[in-house]
Amino acid sequence: MRQDGRTADMGRPVTIERDYLIHPEGSVLISVGNTKVICTATIEERVPPFLRGSGQGWVTAEYSMLPRATGQRTQRESSRGKVGGRTMEIQRLIGRAMRAVVDLEALGERTVWIDCDVIQADGGTRTASITGAFVAMSIAVSKLTSKKELKKFPIRDYLAAISVGKTEEGVLILDLDYPEDSAAAVDMNVVMTGAGEFVELQGTGEEATFTRQEMNDLVELAESGIQRLIGIQREVLADVGTQIGRKEGE
Amino acid sequence: MRQDGRTADMGRPVTIERDYLIHPEGSVLISVGNTKVICTATIEERVPPFLRGSGQGWVTAEYSMLPRATGQRTQRESSRGKVGGRTMEIQRLIGRAMRAVVDLEALGERTVWIDCDVIQADGGTRTASITGAFVAMSIAVSKLTSKKELKKFPIRDYLAAISVGKTEEGVLILDLDYPEDSAAAVDMNVVMTGAGEFVELQGTGEEATFTRQEMNDLVELAESGIQRLIGIQREVLADVGTQIGRKEGE
Amino acid sequence: MRQDGRTADMGRPVTIERDYLIHPEGSVLISVGNTKVICTATIEERVPPFLRGSGQGWVTAEYSMLPRATGQRTQRESSRGKVGGRTMEIQRLIGRAMRAVVDLEALGERTVWIDCDVIQADGGTRTASITGAFVAMSIAVSKLTSKKELKKFPIRDYLAAISVGKTEEGVLILDLDYPEDSAAAVDMNVVMTGAGEFVELQGTGEEATFTRQEMNDLVELAESGIQRLIGIQREVLADVGTQIGRKEGE
Amino acid sequence: MRQDGRTADMGRPVTIERDYLIHPEGSVLISVGNTKVICTATIEERVPPFLRGSGQGWVTAEYSMLPRATGQRTQRESSRGKVGGRTMEIQRLIGRAMRAVVDLEALGERTVWIDCDVIQADGGTRTASITGAFVAMSIAVSKLTSKKELKKFPIRDYLAAISVGKTEEGVLILDLDYPEDSAAAVDMNVVMTGAGEFVELQGTGEEATFTRQEMNDLVELAESGIQRLIGIQREVLADVGTQIGRKEGE
Amino acid sequence: MRQDGRTADMGRPVTIERDYLIHPEGSVLISVGNTKVICTATIEERVPPFLRGSGQGWVTAEYSMLPRATGQRTQRESSRGKVGGRTMEIQRLIGRAMRAVVDLEALGERTVWIDCDVIQADGGTRTASITGAFVAMSIAVSKLTSKKELKKFPIRDYLAAISVGKTEEGVLILDLDYPEDSAAAVDMNVVMTGAGEFVELQGTGEEATFTRQEMNDLVELAESGIQRLIGIQREVLADVGTQIGRKEGE
Amino acid sequence: MRQDGRTADMGRPVTIERDYLIHPEGSVLISVGNTKVICTATIEERVPPFLRGSGQGWVTAEYSMLPRATGQRTQRESSRGKVGGRTMEIQRLIGRAMRAVVDLEALGERTVWIDCDVIQADGGTRTASITGAFVAMSIAVSKLTSKKELKKFPIRDYLAAISVGKTEEGVLILDLDYPEDSAAAVDMNVVMTGAGEFVELQGTGEEATFTRQEMNDLVELAESGIQRLIGIQREVLADVGTQIGRKEGE
């Protein structure tokens, strides 16, 4: 039994509040336990220099935390004058994950900007960001369809992410909150599609190691957690979701 | 009659949601019409170098906007690697305003960090920040009292802020939303105390000027708006508020 | 009676040395008591991106202090790698003030760069900068007229600035020097036009507040000080000044 | 058959030149095919602030590429004024990987600085850096032992890293060179210990996904490649290596 | 005959206005033709970390140009967020030159900060800075003597600098103004002491070269120019100068 | 006799390994005693803005040291976020030296980027960089000739550099290693062409001065050292070198 009463293979309560903000083309407030992230998607009608004239689109992401998303106040990266390594790592991960399910040619020469701003952190902010960002992106992209600006819906499949880990006692657990994450010997973030394929798998021993068997068990645990998240995404995206993964002519 | 149905002297609907986040010592989500700001207050048990050993405390503030708080996406200041002039101006204003009602000696050698993060912007983000930050600060400081760490409650009076302006047609209006603010000929931000005294008065002609009579009428309009805001603060701070401005021995 | 023998409503000696430097299109050395600022105006034949193709011009300002303009050496902002909040606030104020009296359409698609470099500081550097910059700008713009590059003289009115304040003893005083400014309870900067209208009014209680009556008295004091400064500007700009505010056809 | 004649499960030629530089406590030049990295280890007799007084040591890493390590000249990060996201990700990975096999308490309050400078890049620079850095670190740490500054040898096990990937045609390959890496659908970096346990596993679909079966096959491929690398490390570290992983009393 | 009527071996008119500013311990305005530099010297009662506890002092310099010191407006280094290569080169040169005539032990553990701010540039700003900075430093240091804070006057000799060059036509000229400097094939800056010894010699072919004979002739030309400058320094420093180079017991 | 057995007028062993890297158009590893520098030359088919459309080319240089090129680890300039003054001074020197022997018109509108990365430092890194960079540049430029992209070979003469100095005992020595350089009273860097003309002469008294006679003797010493270096360059550049300095029609 865990601190908050969950069993090892249980995820935290999840809510995804759609259209949380009035300005962005797509936005959600995702809550995973006490972790809360505002995810927005912005459509920009141009692409970075390396894609100009290619006919291809791009998806990129930025991630940040409010100073008091955390127990101790964290200094703003704007005050420090630079974006830290952890932030860079996370925002690169979010962008890469989104691109794995987007048909960039079908998107056309436009950029989807994903912004994930953690307003309250309690572990799993990067995976909550991915799960929420996918919904925000889907809403934003669906507005392009309704404006007939796309020939084909460019999102190929659902996408969600969760963390799994090994405690110091060797127990494998799903969806770690902050105290669990801080104490974990092994920490793994998994990003998967609706079809159950991997997009990203990042397992890290924190001054510790893990065996092949543990790797397999962790991955299985993550899989079950992600299926539940995708179920929630399907509900939230009821209207939009039917277009995801639709083949041409369907 | 204004775009949203208000008369010239009417403020927008205001709500202040207390204890919005779990981690900070004080936090609110303030909404003024569509403008929404998360204000938090953090108590740090030390002061900047210039006050060390002085027995005095300090109050300082930081302000930021999420990239999609605005209609067009705004680039993050952390990505640009520096804090812009507008942000600096606003955060200096917030800090100065708070300090005007705080007895820094009574606070003792500790710093109150105010963080105002605009999650949705529709005009008046700096004045909403001040009005919300005052509540967050009061909650945070009251926790020090309940821990018996203060001899005297260091907040001397209520404090709130509002904007007033002159339209291009010369009409004086209260609490400008974003379209009104963009079009205004004159824009004035007023910060006042519960006792009705000024803390800050910033009137600016935007490629325009204003007369002494207009100055007086604008100030009067602001005064009425601020009294209403302080009424709302009093309700939200019901338990804590009785300590504000209390003299020693009371 | 004040430290330097002035009465409360007396300004400091002011001199404006025209054409102080050989390179800029307009330049002055303004001295207000011991405060000395080199103000230059540069005409650039292009505008910032947001105005390209608009037919409109722009006026922008930068402000800096030599390290030993002050009693203690101040670290250079170039060495610190960033421009501080106070500098940003002042340079934004100077630019905004100039734009209030410039007809940007009449200026055409060009930028006036104002540079104010304080070589000696003794209080009131921002107001001295505005008063001096107006003269430098007028000279620079007049050279465009003489080259027949303008249809209409784009400066609509004179413009000057002064500070007023309330001492800790509650006396209202004009044109504060540095020791007075450091000790003042309330500090107000006022920018006005030749026609006696306000362009900018920034009153700030320094851990203090002020009443409506004090506001009115301070503004009145400022008004008299500014009229004197504009008188001096008129003399210095003898030849150029006749074009200021001239209507078409005059 | 691959471009350079290797079969899918074959690694590139590897050499590790020990004591490549005269100044550092430990240094190697590692070549993996055409990828060449100078890895150095520096012992500093102090730790970062968060560890002061803890009795624990620390291992941290920095990574960089010469501008012409690559086919096209890459701009220096010092000229751009900031360290990019890719660099940060890699140097965090290297540091974390080293720490997984170091007993930080046995190291005592000192820091091992790892520097990996790529002088020629042809794919796999981060894995070559880890493999080389481990050797440099072992040499540097062994000098502490010979000076009797350590009670116990703080390196618990060998450590090496390799990349594996899936080509666009779906073939799984070991130790990708740059053209293979650029074209790969899936790219996985694996860091393992001499005991065959995982320290880090980072699998990424580049606008593509991978199945659980593929994950398992890739991991197996990596395992064989890493065993070979550790064999080479053992030879290079002949004298020093006997201390690695030695239990107290051995 | 040169543009401004000088012969090849003639320097420009030089004036050094002492005590130009009220705040610094030492200050001058030096004019060399149209080149005008404000030089100040600040005494700080501490030294950089590498000298703490050594009993030795330090002299360091910073150099800057006002944006309109030049014909075209130069962007401020504070706005660009970094100090350029040319500035760094010049301020390192100024500091090194001063240190060559200062007995750092006699100075004691204090730092002399030299600030050279070019308000008008017409060639030779670095050499004018050195010549002026020497005077400012001497005044500042003499105040320490009068306060009895020094056992021995720490300035060993006079110091001044001048530029010489070779025109495209092969003529060797003294004290180049800006048009001459821009067109010169060879440019040499020479810093010498009152005793006629070299402190710094920097000869540079600008896409050109120079022979040994030319080197000797240039150096001789510089020598005569520097003697004249030191003569002017002696006059300006009448009272202070008697201490320069005085042996103990004198 | 010096520490390493050399007489005062003896240079250190020099080797220049050509085509050290596979990617750059020109590259060498130059060793001068224990000083080792990787020099590369990159041809970019465009020029900086100030030369666009001029028909002229450009040569520019960057210089850096690996953190452990030195006895103590040096912090990376990328981590500090800015390039230091010493680095700037050196890279400006290298660029300027190269340009002195390049006919920029014959080069055409392209840029030669020189990168000098010191992998091991033992004094004389800037002069070794120049000597090595000249070879790398010659190789890179000769590839343009063989591609018939040039009408005329744009390198006019050989170019090499060496340091000379005066010890504290007053002995003049050639090619200082790091301990000699640190202790020297006077330090002079000399850059010369194959024809024996000066390109750059930088003599600096380190808290010391030098006489005219010493200047002459130092220069003579440098001359002999440079002739030897150019002899080595001629051998290394056997095939390419015949084009250097060839007149049209030859």
Note down, in words, how this protein is organized:
The first copy, chain A, has 250 residues and is an alpha+beta fold. Helices cover 32% and strands 27% of the residues of chain A. Chain A has helices at residues 77-80, 85-100, 104-107, 125-146, 178-183, 212-236, 238-241, and strands at 14-18, 26-32, 35-44, 58-65, 111-120, 159-166, 172-174, 186-193, 198-205. In chain A, strand 6 (159-166) and strand 7 form a beta hairpin. The radius of gyration of chain A is 18 Å and the shape is globular. At the B-C interface, helix 2, strand 9 and helix 6 of B face helix 2, strand 9 and helix 6 of C. Strand 9 (198-205) of chain B pairs antiparallel with strand 9 (198-205) of chain C. Chains A, B, C, D, E, F: Its EC number is 2.7.7.56.
Task: List unreliable stretches of 5+ residues of chain A.
Answer: none
- Integer average pLDDT of chain A: 95
Q: In oligomeric terms, what are we looking at?
A: homohexamer
Spatial strand arrangement across the major sheet of chain A: 1-2-3-5-4
Derived structural class of chain A: alpha+beta
Biggest interface between chains: B-C, 36 and 36 residues
Query: Beta fraction of the residues of chain A?
Result: 25-35%
Overall radius of gyration of chain A: 18 Å
**Helical segment count of chain A:** 7
How is the secondary structure organized here?
The structure is a homohexamer of 250-residue chains.
Chain A: E1 14-18, E2 26-32, E3 35-44, E4 58-65, H1 77-80, H2 85-100, H3 104-107, E5 111-120, H4 125-146, E6 159-166, E7 172-174, H5 178-183, E8 186-193, E9 198-205, H6 212-236, H7 238-241
Parallel strand pairs in A: 4-5
Antiparallel strand pairs in A: 1-2, 2-3, 3-5, 6-7, 6-8, 8-9
Helix pairs in contact in A: 2-4
